[in-house]
Amino acid sequence: MILITNFAFGQDKVTIDKNLPKYEIKDEFNRFDDIGNPKNDFESLKFNFKSNSEIEIRNSYTSGFTGNDIKFSIDKHLNIKKVTYNYWTDVVDLDNLITYRVKKVNLKLNQNPFDKINGLRGMYILEVQHIRNDSLIKTEQIKGKFKNFKGINKQSSDYKWTLEQNKIWYGITNENGVYLKPDKVPSLKSDYKILVKEIKNIKGYVPSKIKAFVVINENGKIEEKPIRFLGQLDKSIEKQITKLLIELTEWYPACVNEKEVKSQIPIVIGTE
Fold first, then answer.
1. Residue of 265, 267, 202 lying closest to 235 (CA atoms)
2. What is the residue-wise DSSP string for 137-166?
3. DSSP class of residue 169?
4. When you count CB atoms within 10 A of the terminal residue's CB, does the N or C end of the chain come out lower?
5. Own/partner pairs for 244-247, CB < 8 Å, 24+ apart?
6. CA pair distance 245, 223, nearest whole angstrom
7. Which pLDDT value is given to residue 170?
8. Cα distances (Å, whole numbers) of residue 91 to 6, 67, 69
9. Terminus-to-terminus CA distance in the chain, angstroms?
10. How confident is the model at residue 217 (pLDDT cuts 50, 70, 90)?
11. In terms of domain of life, where is this protein from (predicted)?
12. Computed from CA positions of residues 90, 66, 164, 37, in that sequence, does the dihedral angle turn out positive or negative?
């Protein structure tokens, strides 16, 4: 991992806005919170009180291969002492390193973090300069928002919304709440030979290998929608195969934290 450095700037003031827009909406601002990635407990928001008079707010993102960190250092008078932006990657051209300089910042908080940290929310817009060999390449605007969920009821609609959005963001589920990376994947329970026999009886062109993505529900049954076949298949053939998959297969469903869940998997059916 190589850091593709940062820089900070001078002093600005935090704006306190008690009517800050709600965190739990989809907009152009990148989200950071302390509801961990359900797979590895990675938290994108952290607070660090360096002393009674200074707090550091850190927003982090990682894809596993690239990532970035944004840090705000704020004193008890709500002066922004320093802002840094770091970008890192596992693949980097050492001869053409890019450094980043935060030129401007507009940071708003819903409350004074030195008075209360629980429920703290913030929104910001950064103006970040990309610099290579002491020359300005471009200036990028970065929009972000964050929320501290410590102490918030995990059954609340705000918490549940954020948890589900994080699952989508980290590729754990899709937009419909279907798991893409369960702890335990589904496995076939019924007799595969019966399915193949009935597929062979279908009139018309049926390839020797049928590939599809299917959704298996908590009861171990394939759902009619969405089934996505790969390759060229006549619509009437797809419809017949779909009917057979639903009627003739039973599955041990996927599990997450030992709980049966709905999941999507690829399947391959050999007919020869």
1. 202
2. EEEEEEEEEEE--TTS-TTSHHHHHHHHHH
3. H
4. C
5. 244/195, 244/198, 244/199, 245/195, 245/214, 246/221, 246/222
6. 9
7. 79
8. 18, 12, 17
9. 48
10. very high
11. Bacteria
12. positive
Share in percent of the chain as helix, strand, coil (round to 5): 15, 45, 45
Q: What is the distance between the alpha carbons of residues 163 and 36, in angstroms, rounded to a whole number?
A: 8
Neighbours of 149 (CB within 10 A): 21
Read off the DSSP letter of residue 96. G
Q: What is the pLDDT of residues 104-149, one digit of tens each?
A: 999 999 999 999 999 999 999 999 999 988 899 999 999 999 999 9
Quote the crossing angle between the two packed helices 235-248 and 192-200, to the nearest 10°: 150
pLDDT(204) > 90: no
- Whether 92 has a pLDDT exceeding 80, the answer reads no
Place of tokens 């959704």: 215
pLDDT exceeds cutoff 80 at 95: no
* The residue to which tokens 């850091």 are assigned: 3
CATH of domain 187-270: 3.30.2420
pLDDT over 50 (residue 26): yes
Which pLDDT value is given to residue 11?
A: 53
Domain spans of the chain?
Answer: 2-169, 187-270
Q: Are strands 228-230 and 54-62 parallel, antiparallel or unpaired?
A: unpaired
Mean pLDDT taken over the chain = 88
pLDDT at 5: 43
